[in-house]
Design a protein that fits this description.
mainly alpha, about 325 residues, 2 domains
Length: about 325
């Protein structure tokens, strides 16, 4: 029985990896300059992981640099598993890199959620998967000298101009407004809280960092809109994942996420730091394990959602007037 269980785990992991690679391949095939990399991924299921990541043919005959003004990355950085792939993909197109990161994140976390059910401990596999992704992205950004570009630094303006973050702190207490409850066993609660902390980091980096910065090179206003909408609409998956929530609850979550997404992108764009967004996002996610979900459809719960959206939008509008205007993106980076 134990041997059969191990075989099932291996088979499940291989299937998840192949699905992730196939999904990434589809995204890459949509870009004109990624055919070589997509062809490489199409052969990935027939290779061992070590052979795929360490013997990737990245010679100049296959993938040449066509624009000397692209972001320069430190030579020799991230030479580990998948590092060269990430580096080359980023050099060729920051926007494609952002989209691939989002697709991989969604696919991996979806597979991990299914694995959670098999394990029997809520969010255990998801927490591990998200922690690994967070570590890889952290290393990629720091070792390639991209911390300033993606806001992994202190804010460039004072806390006073952010109104000392008081409205943000109020939003961070959102999950306690309808009461407190503990519905998970201690192991599931710990795994969920730890995993949600990593989710806050990863989602802010790929949505507010990679995607927004890539789009802002062309026009910052559409970039703000797209970053806010994609973050909110990303929660639409909750309508189909069997979480037990009704239509009204899911729609309110989507609208609230769009409002929070707009606030976060304004804080990052004007303030230059992603850390306030990461911390707020992580805290809101992590404290969701204490939210009294049974009161979600009460009048108080509906009013709390309206108040949250109002605070987020009002705070964002105020920051648009109190924070200094950001410098225009240098389109020559692309």
């Amino acid at each position: 029985m134990k041997q059969r269980s191990s075989l099932l785990w291996v088979e499940y992991a291989q299937t998840a990896v192949h699905k992730a690679l196939s999904c990434v391949q589809g995204v890459l095939l949509c870009t004109k300059r990624s055919t070589v990399f997509a062809a490489l991924l199409s052969d990935a299921p027939r290779r061992s992981p070590a052979n795929f990541f360490f013997t990737v043919d990245m010679s100049e005959n296959h993938m040449r640099e066509t624009d000397d003004s692209r972001l320069s990355l430190r030579s020799g950085a991230i030479d580990g598993i998948g590092g060269r792939v990430m580096k080359r993909l980023y050099q060729r197109s920051e926007l494609t890199f952002a989209i691939v990161c989002i697709v991989v994140y969604v696919v991996v976390q979806s597979a991990a959620l299914s694995l959670d059910e098999l394990i029997g401990v809520p969010y255990l596999a998801s927490a591990v998967a998200c922690a690994i992704q967070a570590g890889l992205l952290w290393c990629f950004v720091h070792k390639n000298g991209l911390s300033e570009r993606y806001g992994l630094q202190a804010p460039r303006v004072s806390a006073r101009q952010f109104l000392y973050y008081v409205p943000l702190v109020i939003l961070m207490t959102r999950n306690f407004w309808n009461g407190v409850t503990i519905s998970l066993p201690w192991a599931g609660m710990v795994c969920t809280m730890v995993g949600m902390l990593f989710v806050g980091f990863v989602e802010e980096l790929i949505f507010r960092g990679f995607l927004f910065k890539a789009m802002a090179r062309s026009n910052v206003n559409p970039a703000i809109i797209v970053s806010s909408l994609t973050f909110g609409l990303g929660h639409i998956v909750n309508m189909f994942n069997g979480n037990g929530a009704g239509l009204v609850e899911n729609l309110s979550q989507i609208v609230g996420a769009i409002a929070i997404g707009f606030l976060f992108v304004m804080m990052f764009y004007r303030g230059g730091s992603l850390w306030p967004c990461i911390i707020a996002h992580a805290v809101i996610n992590a404290t969701s394990v204490f939210s009294a979900e049974s009161q979600a459809f009460s009048i108080g719960g509906i009013m709390a959602s309206v108040v949250m959206i109002g605070i987020a939008l009002a705070y964002a509008i105020v920051l648009m007037h109190t924070l200094p205007k950001a410098e225009a993106e240098d389109s020559s980076h692309e």
